[in-house]
Amino acid sequence: MHDGDDVGTAYRKLTELSNGQWQIAMSSDISYYFLSDERKETSRFEVKGNQVLPLVYQRLAETSLRSDRNIVQNFDWDNMIEQGTYQDDKWTQALQPGYLDQLTQMLIIREHLLTQKPIPAIDISYRGSIRHHEFKVLGQEVIQTGKGPVETAKVQLNESKRDRQTNFWFSLEHNMLPMQVQRIKEGEEQAKLIAVDW
């Protein structure tokens, strides 16, 4: 949603693979006036003990107002090295325990909400640098979804260096599935995802 208008759809799926690894896949397709934006993201990861270890993250993006921006990140935990590409840029950087990608961070948030533990700060590896994310649980809130009202836990991420805020609503009734995501930049709502089916 943008300014109250339905501008597209998004889809998220978590799959257990035959080799015991897992994959999160997310796709979105947006069309708004002259803007069209289509994205596909996947993260393949494994779980060892209580640690989520991302293995391969990919994002394919096609946007009408700029050139395609694709990212590939490979995490080598045996050698504690990450290698990645973004358009024509390439990087290699050292890994630290706990590093996640854009998609796997949601697993950590859900895990801590389910166990009612404080959400830790999360370091996200993104385009050859590390983003430090700190989350705050704001309380409970009933939101309207495609299937009616849902009781949720509201969680907020503030990125002060980027003047950006992201709010997440996780369902208390449905295993803390994300039901709504809102992005605010420079005080204005950019977009909101609202669950219609699960």
Give an overview of the whole structure.
The protein is mainly beta and 198 residues long. The protein has a domain at 1-102. Helices cover 5% and strands 61% of the residues. The protein contains 1 helix and 14 strands; from the N terminus they run βββββββαβββββββ. A 7-stranded antiparallel sheet has the order 1-2-3-4-5-6-7, with no helix packed on it. A 5-stranded antiparallel sheet has the order 10-11-12-13-14, with no helix packed on it. Strand 6 (81-86) and strand 7 (89-94) form a beta hairpin. The mean pLDDT is 93.
List keywords for this structure.
1 helix; single chain; mainly beta; 198 residues; DUF3108; globular
How are the strands of the largest sheet arranged?
A: 1-2-3-4-5-6-7
Work out the number of β strands. 14
Total helical elements = 1
The share of residues in extended strands comes to over 45%
The H-and-E topology, N to C, reads as EEEEEEEHEEEEEEE
The residue fraction in helices comes out at under 10%
Shape: globular
| pLDDT averaged residue by residue | 93
What characterizes the major β-sheet?
7 strands, antiparallel
> Which regions contain 5 or more consecutive residues with pLDDT less than 50?
none
Structural class: mainly beta
Cα gyration radius (Å): 17 Å
How far apart lie the N and C ends? 18 Å
